[in-house]
Amino acid sequence: MKVPQFIHLLGSPPWFYRISGQLMPVLGLLACALLIVAWVWGLGFAPEDAKQGNSYRIIYLHVPTAVIALAGYYVMAFTGLVYLVWRIQLMALMLKSAALIGAAMTFLALFSGAVWGKPTWGTWWVWDARITSMLILFFLYLGVLGIINAFSGSKTSQQAGVKAASILALVGTVNIPIIYKSVDWWFSLHQPATLKLTGKSNIDGSMLTPLLIAIVGCYVFYAFMLLWRTRIELQSSEHNKQWLRDAVSKK
Amino acid sequence: MSITRLQVDRLSAGYERPLFRDVSFSLEAQQVAHVMGGNGSGKTTLLNCLLGLFPATSGDIYWNGFELRANAFDAALYLGEQVNAQSYALGLKNALSVRENLQLYLSTTANALQAASQTVRQQRIDQVLEQLSLLAVANKRCEQLSSGQQRRVSLSKLLLNPCAVWVLDEPFAAVDKQGVVLLEGLISQHVEKGGSVLFTSHQDVSLGMSVRTVQL
Amino acid sequence: MSITRLQVDRLSAGYERPLFRDVSFSLEAQQVAHVMGGNGSGKTTLLNCLLGLFPATSGDIYWNGFELRANAFDAALYLGEQVNAQSYALGLKNALSVRENLQLYLSTTANALQAASQTVRQQRIDQVLEQLSLLAVANKRCEQLSSGQQRRVSLSKLLLNPCAVWVLDEPFAAVDKQGVVLLEGLISQHVEKGGSVLFTSHQDVSLGMSVRTVQL
Amino acid sequence: MINAPMIFSIAAAFKAHVKAESLLRWRHKSDILQPLLFFVLVLSLFPIAINAPSQELARLAPGILWVIVLLASLFSAEHLFRDDLGDGSLSAQLLSVQPLSVYVVAKLSVHVAFVVVPLALASPIMALMLHMPGSGVPVLILSVLIGGVSLSMIAAFGAALTVSVHQRSMLLALITLPLYVPVLIFASSAIQSNIDGTFPTMQLLILMSFALLSAALLPWAISAALKLSVENK
Amino acid sequence: MINAPMIFSIAAAFKAHVKAESLLRWRHKSDILQPLLFFVLVLSLFPIAINAPSQELARLAPGILWVIVLLASLFSAEHLFRDDLGDGSLSAQLLSVQPLSVYVVAKLSVHVAFVVVPLALASPIMALMLHMPGSGVPVLILSVLIGGVSLSMIAAFGAALTVSVHQRSMLLALITLPLYVPVLIFASSAIQSNIDGTFPTMQLLILMSFALLSAALLPWAISAALKLSVENK
Ligand code: HEM
Ligand SMILES: Nc1ncnc2c1ncn2[C@@H]1O[C@H](COP(=O)(O)OP(=O)(O)OP(=O)(O)O)[C@@H](O)[C@H]1O
Ligand SMILES: Nc1ncnc2c1ncn2[C@@H]1O[C@H](COP(=O)(O)OP(=O)(O)OP(=O)(O)O)[C@@H](O)[C@H]1O
Ligand SMILES: [Mg+2]
Ligand SMILES: [Mg+2]
To answer: What's the pTM?
Structure first.
């Protein structure tokens, strides 16, 4: 199969190490800036919600993490696909990082949602469509992490583990839309209307702008974390390679 | 003019560190090669590499002139080491009798007897069992056999499936003296008929023919 | 005056049919006995009987003059055959490293080093590992060892636990030539120091002393 | 004899694999009953644990029954490839000229026949034990039969991924159960709507399409996972 | 060196066994999380399958929770003795002068610490997810802790009986689940009565006596079963 130029470059760890070294400060600063703006705005200046009071402000953490959680799964599956097709070692490392960060994001979304639920619904947990799907997504992430963790013998078996995780991620990708759709359909059959709070957003514009900024900020933060984790993985897997020693000593 | 069955070029493989580096050798028709080396020198790893069951770090492997791709060859018959945590076991089903195991082997692998009638196969199996003195236990389940008997059942595959190359990891382990002589005879005959054999063994083997050694 | 370590009187055992009938022999201090017989003749079964791991049909077994009751003796150290469906494996934990396995062995069996300090034990383990050329893999998990290395780890228990009688089922299988010489040396030394050894092997063994044979 | 032509036919190999696998299952006869027993046992825990009046149990029955079907299919698939990996037959299959998927599909067909069919046949009795209205029973059987195919494929996929792993049952559950969810939903919805008086054509069709989808795609994923497991061994 | 005195102390051996067993569990770190994950996974199937309003879920919660605790304890005990039989350590234990029960009790203590305690600690979160009233939670934790001891002993007994059997999970369930029933009854009754406003002293005392009884008697039965399994191997 002909390898596209970009993919070809990704096959070279020194290139990735150099480029990510240059990108990371930019992404890091940008993420900080966006998130600070969004949160200061959202927490300090956006108006209070008529029904929920101040507790709604957790939306600025909850929604961005929830959005990233799902997008992160596709990023992970994509790295898995590239790894399976072109056998690029770097993608293996990136898949590991994406699984970890994605699981963390999903957990944050669930956790912030639960914290939000207490003042709003008077209960920490509710079995509604979106929440249930999010929980299943969390399990899907844990499955991928579990496989990676279980194949932890020699380097060969670690590679086999990443391939297994890639296959699982791909099967999961086919399944996620099916899971989301069916859960949504099922709970919409019986759910009492009072729980439809997470339904259509009727958010005021002045609340929406900081939310959008927070979402973009979170995406950038995700990209930053992904590069950072992958670099760490790269350092530990190539620790005895000459180019890495050169790269580190140049600093 | 001899046929090159297996050609290994500058092969390296290992786990954390390389076990062997740049191993090159070839195996032609009517040749026997003995892979030698102490415990842990990488003999089993080498054989697994040759059959595509373990990834090599670098180097090339050609079977009958074609590059190795796992899962697509009928060139060799591989009998693994008798259990060790990471190696390949004998390929016997514990719950089936010796005879059933061999029938299963004949019917699920590509071999010259695949199209033969049930009776022809049955006769062939009985012949082979006789040759390996397993007739007395032919109807016992494999889990009820002694370790040497289990090894003999696995060796009987060599006679059932006339494959050109035999790859044998410690085939002499666990078999008794009479069995060693028998197996030596089988190997000699196979080679005389134009076959090739690659094996590992810690014991001295007397085959009555020249044996190449591959030292690890 | 010699001490009778093991006395076997008219022992019979088997599965559907008896494998051996009325076997009698004794093993004294400073003696070595080699249990001989072809594949499936019942050697492993005999050893299991002697240690109370398999019920004999008839006959008596005395260890140091006392009748055998399973689960109550420290008379012998038994190393089983290297895996076979019904036999006893090497007693190693796959998930633990070689060193951890030996530490575990020292701390969970009754032995002379049980009361010794941690450092003393550690030193002894290192000595033994050195002797069996296992130092290089001392921190590898047992499942990552080659079959010969696994066998060596199990043999190192012989040196850690100074038991008077060694019962060894195919101890020479899977070990390389250098290992065979080493083990022969260990057996000779043990016997010279007053120990007794009962073993099975299909290979010829040169111990430089007279060996009783028990033919099955 | 050397270099004799290797005669080889996919159909014959498939038949041979099916025969061998059935023989093996038949040899361990008691294993055949086990998923059923598990079904009955776990089911009988619920009335004890919940202590609800029978009308309420009846209403919960489709859900409870299906959760137990999921668990039974999960645990019966756990050992699907274990023996084959341990005794070397799996690497022999990998070395063979035959595509691995012939072996996989044969094995899965036998698994469905020996696990799903008995579960489907036993489910009416279970429904009775939970006081489920008789009107739901035909659809219950259908849903177990059709849904069971997807469940077996998914569980086999999990089993193939985890076969070389030390303590695999829980990891298998973690991988498999989330993928089970759509089947669970449409199956219990089908039974529910049948009890409520509408024949659940839509749900059954969806279950059918899940079955076809998984039977078409997962054998490849399973073959790939098995190859990796041999390397990890 | 030959015939050196064999120094041997039960206390030291117990400690060594506990240490070794903990080390082994620790080596497979992810296994420690597995009963917990199983708990959460199976738990979340119920609301999906049943799709009931939250008040109803809350009422079913004690029963559902306890059925899952049973299953988790069952499956986590499945492999308790398998490795030890397979790698020969079990026969080594049989040959040793130490009573087998030292090894058994040590193993069981570690099992309780690594399985029952995490399950008990996690149960409040599970209770929350099923909307169980907060007032039931302390008794829930207590009941899992106390009842868990009996469950572990019973499951270990089943595991010891079936360790040499080919496909053991279902047979194990068959042996174990009926023995679980008394624990299940008193545990779910304890939680229910606590939610209803009376502190279930009687039920907890009965659970406690089950725990003491099984901890006192079952280790002997387990030792005997293990001996049989070695001979049957
Ligand atoms: C554990 C509990 C919760 C989970 C797992 C959860 C999950 C999610 C998810 C996955 C999204 C989706 C974002 C998207 O569709 O792009 C979301 C959005 C949202 N959630 Fe939650 N949620 C939880 C609790 C809550 C609570 C208690 C509330 C407030 C009462 C809430 C309010 C919202 C809102 C307003 C949105 C944005 C909706 C929109 O943009 O359409 N969530 N949540
Ligand atoms: N569980 C069993 N059920 C029935 N027969 C058995 C069982 N185990 C062993 N046998 C039979 O007992 C005989 C002796 O077995 P044993 O393992 O003692 O032989 P051995 O002398 O150690 O042979 P080897 O040299 O191959 O190790 C064999 O013929 C075997 O078939
Ligand atoms: N899964 C693994 N992870 C790490 N190292 C391994 C693994 N498997 C094998 N090794 C190491 O590779 C080396 C070679 O093993 P191999 O089994 O090839 O040896 P061998 O030459 O066949 O030895 P033997 O004569 O004992 O059979 C050993 O030192 C072993 O420790
Ligand atoms: Mg080897
Ligand atoms: Mg033997």
So the answer is: 0.89
